[in-house]
From TrEMBL:
InterPro entries: GH (IPR017853), GH_1_N_CS (IPR033132), Glyco_hydro_1 (IPR001360). It comes from the Bacteria. It is an enzyme of class 3 (hydrolase). Belongs to the glycosyl hydrolase 1 family. Its EC number is 3.2.1.-. PANTHER family: GLYCOSYL HYDROLASE, LP05116P. The keyword RNA-binding does not apply. Keywords: Glycosidase, Hydrolase. Pfam families: Glyco_hydro_1. The keyword Hydrolase applies. Gene3D superfamilies: Glycosidases. One of its GO terms (molecular function) is hydrolase activity, acting on glycosyl bonds. This is Glycoside hydrolase family 1 protein.
Length: 486
């Protein structure tokens, strides 16, 4: 790994609060920003795009704050050239975007919609013309509704359809895309979509959630193979996972952390990077499923070499174990178990405990040390695997100043502290290749609608005007110089 340096000062190990300045990132380190198709594009029914599960979910009363939808979002579909110029103005080295599967194949299978291909081809060409590397994610949660109607991710046929979609995109853009990412946060797709129900498609079926886990893993592996077979350039291949950085509380702390680590982290990393499912996870979930959906050859297909592992990090999580409290009792409102989460197959409740602040507007605790810890833990477990922070950022209630500027000192401080954490991990041996701030634009924040703003660029959702926030200008200095500003 290319060496990184710290500023010459008496505080060799940096400030205890992670508020360092002057840290130098190595040449070639990628400074980027990220968005997702449904959150920014709009144009939900234009140029042949079919409906996705998020179109359906957001238009279901009571599912999204204020009844908000992604019908218009940031109107990125129509404003792409201006947004590309904005990225160049910020000095971004890379842009991580996602491709809307229903824009390419409106029903998830069958004929390809050339207008969809053309849009992303223009986007990729526009990035390259401006010296920005395209990082394309095949799936950021917007499953074609027709595939959900046929069973969704719990159905193996969805994996077959995804492989075909990957072939199409590899052939269309694989000569120019710098990095392919198969999936964004399959934990959310499986557990929030099919277990907890807070995300599209909003199902509450534990066995289906576990089947979705496997079929998402399999879709990843088969997509990597399909992309390699059809891409004529020399792209990198990756997947992006959101990791649970855990803290334990009480006498059962170790057991609570083991269970959640297994179901949240290792159920993805072990098949993808080791070619196996953790035995303890299979045992923990045996009362829900026998995992018979795992077929011969699946694990070999999933276990594909990756050029980079995408790491999404926002906060830590504290868990404790409630002995003698069944999932049914918890769901029926057992005293003391409010807020508990009954993970599939568990006869004991793992509760997620509120953590000390400060918090972002999402209610997530701010813990930059968790990012350093995570990067080092991944380095220890997978020492030859390069890493990339593919999402990190914070939502705060920004206020536009009288002069039209958008001072956001809390977000700026959040980013400064987390870049410090990433740099410290690199000094300690993590092979971290880059960092993508979430998000480039304020956008549709899933179940929160437009109530939460993550962008380093403000979007006025009445006029759709873009304004670079103070955090965006700070990040621009970092991206252009490679030196962490104060």
């Amino acid at each position: 790994m290319t060496s990184v340096t710290s500023p010459a000062s008496p505080a060799v190990h940096g400030s205890p609060d992670y508020r360092d300045a002057g840290l130098v990132f190595p040449p070639g380190f990628t400074f980027g920003s990220a968005t997702a198709s449904y959150q920014v594009e709009g144009a939900f029914d234009e140029d042949g795009r079919g409906p996705s599960i998020w179109d359906t979910f957001s238009k279901t009363p009571g599912k999204v704050w204020n009844g908000d939808t992604g019908d218009v979002a940031c109107d990125h579909y129509h404003r792409v050239d201006d947004d590309l110029d904005l990225m160049r103005e910020l000095g971004l080295g890379a842009y991580r975007f996602s491709i809307a599967w229903p824009r390419i194949m409106p029903t998830g299978t069958g004929a390809v919609n050339q207008a969809g291909i053309d849009f992303y081809s223009r986007l990729v060409d526009g990035l390259l013309e401006r010296g920005i590397r395209p990082v394309a994610t095949l799936y950021h949660w917007d499953l074609p509704q027709a595939l959900e109607d046929a069973g969704g991710w719990p159905a193996r046929a969805t994996t077959d359809a995804f492989e075909r979609y990957a072939e199409v995109m590899g052939a269309a853009l694989g000569d120019r895309v710098h990095t392919w990412t198969t999936l964004n946060e399959p934990w959310c797709s499986a557990y929030l979509g099919y277990g907890q129900g807070g995300h599209a498609p909003g199902r509450h079926e534990p066995a289906a959630a576990l089947a979705a886990v496997h079929h998402l893993n399999l879709a990843h592996g088969r997509a990597v193979q399909a992309l390699r077979a059809t891409s004529t350039g020399d792209p990198d291949y990756s997947v992006t996972l959101n990791f649970h950085v855990l803290r334990g509380l009480g006498d059962g702390a170790a057991e609570a952390m083991r269970r959640i680590d297994g179901l949240a982290n290792r159920v993805f990393t072990h098949p993808m990077l080791k070619g196996e499912y953790p035995a303890d996870v299979l045992a923990d979930t045996a009362s829900v499923t026998d995992w018979s959906f795992v077929r011969d050859g699946d694990l070999d297909a999933i276990n594909q070499p990756l050029d980079v592992l995408g790491v999404n990090y926002y906060s830590t999580a504290t868990v404790r174990l409630w002995d003698g409290v069944s999932p049914k009792q918890m769901n029926d409102g057992h005293k003391g178990a409010a807020g508990g989460t009954a993970w599939p197959g568990s006869d004991r409740v793992v509760e997620f405990v509120e953590q000390p602040g400060p918090y972002t507007e999402m209610g997530w605790n701010i813990a930059p040390e968790g990012l350093e810890e995570l990067l080092l833990a991944l380095t220890e477990e997978f020492p030859d695997q390069p890493l990339m922070v593919t999402e990190n950022g914070a939502a705060f209630a920004d206020v536009v100043a009288e002069d039209g500027s958008v001072p956001d000192p809390e977000r700026l401080d959040y980013l400064r502290r987390h870049f410090t954490a990433a740099h410290r991990a690199m000094v300690r041996g993590a092979d971290l290749r880059g960092y993508f701030v979430w998000s480039l634009l304020d956008n549709f924040e899933w179940g929160y609608g437009y109530a939460k703003r993550f962008g380093i660029v403000r979007v006025d959702f009445d006029t759709l005007e873009r304004t670079v926030k103070d955090s965006g200008r700070w990040y621009s200095r970092l991206a252009r110089t490679g030196v962490l500003p104060g």
